[in-house]
Specification:
The complex is a heterodimer. Chain A is an alpha+beta fold. Chain A has 5 helices and 5 strands. In chain A, helix 2 crosses helix 5 and helix 3 crosses helix 4. The chains are: A alpha+beta, B alpha+beta. The complex binds FE2/S2 (inorganic) cluster (FES) (2 copies).
Chain lengths: 189, 765
């Protein structure tokens, strides 16, 4: 973890287009992205972390910066349906792939409706400060897609990558169980 | 200011040079009246940050055509919108929902109908008490918030009474309408707005008694959940204002280090870089985009001086404190501790520096333009930021406008304005709005830590095994004396005056004559235990480290010391730790209440624990509330595993019991992180921790089951955000004693247990 990234979380992968000591304009490429079902294109070097492309180039600020080194999960998005830490994902690596951010999580729901997971979060009073919650929800959404009725052990295995400084873990667990129609301990309801 | 050779050691002059004085009094009044009312209906929570572009600005509530505004909090519009300006910070503690419930209750509108927005700190809201901290919001707001809403309700009813020619007390309000049941008619609030404006504002608005509450006291849903699960909620870091630049701060690598020389030539050539600016707190690399600033920052070559504490280290400090015998000042003196004899037990306890580490790293946007300074930042005290920025700019405080969006956690850290001040400096330097975002490493190394401390405690058990005397002596760094650092007494104050202020602040809080500093001993004084002879004292010390309020503050240190030591005393007296405490709490019913509650919940003494599991108990009174925990824990191949926590809290009255429970759960996990691993260490003036790999946080799989019981005592309301933090470390330490036989007198517990086990191995145990 953290390998290939400097202290600022900047991706320093040996990208071919980026000679050391600065970025000539040819390093800036048009990268075509598919974000929340929409085709977007950005003019950035390929090795810019996806997190900052989402937040700054596309103004999708629901995806959060917490550590920049794949340590906290705040920046989690889906790439082709799988959870990825956008702070350590070079934008060039996900060109053309389907990226879903928290803003796109409700896609497929009727207008203005939340997903069952988000609804369970609201009903369970899960968020406190809320800063980690987009990342938590993206992790949880990826989990239940893979594993529709996760056990506590499966929840632990997936969700332990996402830090919540406010300590909402017990409620996240309950909300995942509630959203997947299970009782508190993970058994069938 | 961007010259490589500028010496920031001369920061007072330097900042004057980069920060021309704003012209006083030239700020157009309109500016200050720009409020944050949502211009369109349907937006329930107005996070409002993006609306900062002038054209997107919405008018001041005063200017909403025909609105009724009995006070600065409540606005009713002719089209039936009811708005509430929530004057505190929402940092997760749920006060926004709590206050909205109080307003909805008294104003007789649905919680969902209320549009809650964050007022900006500007002239209109200047008189507001907007600082958020000390678990005080609900405590101090419980009556006034309801009065503000009740005033509106009474005036709307009076307006209807006037219209219909009936007595006001024949009418009542319900669901946003005034009803005349006798005559079967009603009017919506919006319809009554014009007439309500003509009514007298009641001097003493009539608020409901608790029995009449319909909403308050229920486990209502948080009003901020929906925007927080969709990514819509705007935090400081999400603020975007037109023409904004972004900056990485390169902070000094050692305490107080200043730039000696700097070569920014490479960085300046990199794409998007706008400027490289030396500030009194390090170097700001300003670019069009944050990712550009991030790539340029490593290209800036900086030589730093040795700073203000080149040889400072936390290990040295430990040794110094252990050797120090300063008597200090007495905070509590009852009976005569010296006249007691019996079995004497003495111990020394230590706690480390701790970082708050909210999930949202510190950040701020500042736009210094003409004679206005506008700041957007998650903060616990807009006035402090106004003050600090005004000091920097040499302008009136009122020329500084502070927007407070959602806070991505704070825990005390966002009481301090460093990031905002950095943004002010940079914006002034580049002439554009600047957003400063600290890296996680900036945040962890950014100082403002909970103080490191060393405590001595001594108890005397009489012949019957009762605690006859308790002596407690804290050595801790004064938070108040530390306040001068980092911007509150900023460099524009002439150095000599600044020094004087700093020097005198320390003395004020040291002398115990002018201002008593209660923080170093809180949690050790006012104990509920019947101990006839008690002496509590403290001696402050100074270091180059800047210290701060950290969730539960002095209690987080002293409750650990007192309650872990109670366990030592109980064992020395050969008594059960619960019964030992219980016997001493017979005259402290609320202490006793929470203690007995956790004993009952955990079936204390009645249930056999699994092999290897230890169980500990601790109790405290903090921030007006009473809290006890029982913690079960075991050690698995050297690793501490926390199995279960039983918690009881008596906060007198819970405005929203479910949110109180969530605060207890969160406090327990926050406190377990600190108790198990939390430690900021320094060597040669440099902080050794950086990101979450070296400053570890509790994660989902490590979090125990937590069972919470709220006790309702119908007494005064107490705080809920902090009290449950305090008894966690001692309850866990006590559980680990039972599980392992090791007394852990130094936090954090995991490395202390490792050391104890290593010592035991060496001793051939
Ligand atoms: S910001 Fe990406 S994992 Fe923390
Ligand atoms: S809700 Fe605050 S960090 Fe998770």
């Amino acid at each position: 973890m953290g390998k290939g990234f400097d202290a600022f979380g900047l991706c320093t992968l040996p990208a071919k287009s980026v000679p050391s000591g600065g970025l000539p304009s040819k390093g800036v490429l048009e990268v075509k992205l598919k974000v929340n079902g929409e085709e977007r294109s950005v003019d950035v070097p390929e090795d810019v972390p996806l997190l900052w492309v989402l937040r700054e180039e596309l103004e999708l600020t629901g995806t959060k910066f917490g550590c920049g080194q794949a340590l906290c999960g705040a920046c989690t998005v889906h790439v082709d349906g799988k959870a990825r830490r956008s702070c350590v994902t070079a934008v060039g690596d996900v060109a053309g792939k389907a990226i879903t951010t928290i803003e796109g999580l409700t896609q497929g729901e009727a207008d203005g409706k939340l997903t069952v997971l988000q609804q369970a979060w609201v009903e369970g009073n899960v968020p406190q400060c809320g800063y980690c919650q987009p990342g938590q929800l993206m992790m949880a959404a990826a989990l239940i897609r893979r594993c529709p009725k996760p056990t506590d052990a499966q929840i632990d295995a997936t969700m332990s990558g996402s830090i919540c400084r406010c300590g909402t873990y017990p409620r996240i667990r309950s909300a995942i169980h509630a959203a997947t129609g299970q009782s508190e301990d993970g058994g069938a309801k | 200011m961007s010259e490589a050779t500028q010496d920031p050691a001369s920061s007072p002059e330097a900042s004057k040079a980069i920060v021309p004085l704003l012209r006083r009094g030239r700020v157009a009044r309109r500016r200050f009246l720009l409020g944050m009312l949502a211009g369109t209906a349907g937006l329930t929570i107005y996070g409002g940050v993006r609306a900062s572009a002038d054209e997107a600005r919405v008018p001041d509530p005063n200017d909403v055509e025909g609105a009724f505004r009995p006070n600065i909090y409540i606005t009713v519009t002719p089209d039936d919108r009811v708005l509430y300006g929530f004057p505190k910070a929402e940092m997760g503690q749920g006060t926004m929902t709590g206050f909205a419930m109080l307003v909805a209750e008294e104003l007789e509108v649905g919680l969902d109908e209320l549009e809650v927005f964050f007022p900006i700190a500007s002239k209109e809201y200047d008189a507001l008490e907007t600082a958020t901290g000390g678990s005080t919001s609900i405590v101090t707001g419980f009556v006034p918030v309801r009065q503000a809403a009740a005033a509106a309700r009474m005036m709307l009813i009076a307006a209807a009474a006037e219209r219909w020619g009936v007595a006001p007390d024949s009418l009542h309000a319900k669901a946003g309408r005034v009803l005349d049941d006798a005559n079967d008619r009603s009017a919506s609030y919006g319809e009554l707005v014009e007439a309500a404006k003509q009514q007298r504002v009641p001097e003493a608005p009539v608020i409901k008694s608790k029995q009449d509450f319909k909403l308050v006291g229920t486990p209502a849903r948080r009003i901020d959940s929906a925007p927080k699960v969709t990514g819509e909620a705007q935090f400081g870091i999400d603020v975007v204002v037109p023409n904004m630049t972004r900056a990485v701060m390169i902070h000094p690598p050692r305490i107080g280090a200043a730039v000696v020389s700097l070569d920014d030539s490479k960085a300046r050539e990199m794409p998007g870089v706008v400027d490289v600016v030396i500030t009194p707190r390090g170097v700001g690399v300003v670019a069009e985009k944050y990712w550009q600033a991030m790539r340029a920052a490593p290209a800036v070559e900086i030589e730093w001086d040795e700073g203000t504490g080149p040889s400072f280290g936390t290990e040295n400090l430990r040794a110094e404190l252990a050797a120090r015998t300063d008597e200090g000042h007495v905070a509590e003196d009852e009976g005569d501790v010296d006249a007691v004899s019996g079995t004497v037990l003495e111990a020394e306890y230590e706690t480390p520096y701790l970082s708050h580490s909210p999930m949202e790293p510190m950040n701020a946007v500042a736009d210094v333009r003409g004679d206005v300074c506008e700041i957007w930042t998650g903060n616990q005290g807009p006035s402090a930021i106004q003050e600090a920025a005004a000091n920097q700019l040499g302008c009136d405080r009122i020329q500084v406008i502070v927007h407070t969006p959602y806070l991505g956690g704070a825990f005390g850290r966002r009481s301090h304005p460093e990031a905002a001040i950095e943004a002010v400096w940079l914006s002034e330097a580049v002439g554009r709005p600047v957003q400063v975002i600290w890296s996680r490493e900036n945040d962890t190394r950014g100082h403002r830590y909970r103080p490191q401390s060393h405590n001595r405690i001594k108890g005397t058990l009489d012949a019957s095994g009762e605690l006859a005397a308790l002596e407690f002596h804290a050595q801790s760094q004064s938070i108040f004396a530390s306040l001068d650092a980092g911007g509150l007494f900023p460099p524009v104050i002439p150095p000599r005056l600044r020094k004087w202020l700093a020097g005198n602040l320390s003395r004020l809080f040291d002398s115990n004559t002018l201002l008593a500093d209660t923080i170093p001993t809180e949690g050790a004084t006012h104990l509920g235990y019947a101990i006839p002879n008690r002496r509590v004292s403290y001696a402050n010390f100074h270091t180059p480290v800047v210290v701060s309020w950290w969730r539960s503050v002095g209690y987080s240190i002293n409750t650990y010391v007192v309650e872990a030591f109670m366990d030592e005393l109980a064992h020395a007296a050969e008594q059960d730790p619960y019964e030992f405490r219980r016997a001493m709490l017979q005259d402290s019913p609320r202490w006793l209440g929470v203690l007995e509650a956790v004993a009952e919940m955990s079936e204390w003494g009645e249930r056999e624990l699994p092999e290897g599991v230890g169980r500990g108990i601790a109790v405290c009174f903090a921030f007006g509330s009473y809290c006890a925990h029982v913690i079960d824990a075991h050690v698995d191949e050297g690793t501490i595993v926390v199995d279960q926590v039983y918690s009881a809290l008596d906060c007198g009255y819970a405005v929203n019991p479910d949110l109180v429970v969530s605060q207890v759960e969160g406090s327990v996990i926050f406190a377990l992180t600190a108790a198990l691993w939390g430690e900021i260490t320094m060597k040669d003036g440099a902080v050794e921790q950086g990101n979450f790999d070296t400053y570890r946080m509790m994660r989902m799989h490590e979090a125990p089951k937590i069972e919470v019981r709220l006790l309702s005592s119908e007494e005064d309301i107490g705080g809920v955000g902090e009290p449950a933090v305090a008894p966690v470390a001692p309850a866990l330490a006590n559980a680990l004693f039972m599980a392992t036989g090791h007394r852990l007198r130094r936090l954090p517990l995991q490395p202390e247990l490792d050391r104890a086990r290593a010592r035991a191995d060496q001793g051939g145990k």
